[in-house]
Amino acid sequence: MAKAYNMLIGGKWVNGKGRMEVRNPYDGQVLGTVPIATKGEVEAAIDSAQRAFQTFSQMPAHQRSKILENTSNLLNERKREVAETLSKESGKPIRDATGEVSRAVQTFKFAAEE
What we know:
Blueprint: E1 3-4, E2 7-9, E3 12-14, E4 18-23, E5 30-36, H1 39-58, H2 61-77, H3 79-90, H4 94-113
Parallel strand pairs: 1-5
Antiparallel strand pairs: 2-3, 4-5
């Protein structure tokens, strides 16, 4: 049974009105289902992101740095899991997916240092 994922909007998990399957393009296997956002849900997500940006931009640099460093560390700890998901969703080789995740880890690390 494929896992049903939800959307995170404004700190709350939202199921949505409809769902769609996410399939591995290589073998057609259903990896999970995701909600289909309504126009209102998209607008709520944008509004939430804008509010979060305001909060984040008001935060002292050392706090933003810590959040970005923690993000880098957590992503690095789950690198294999994230790479496997990326590989399955995109049909790309695991080596390439692992490289993408490694670059993301470095990007968050560099942002934290800046």
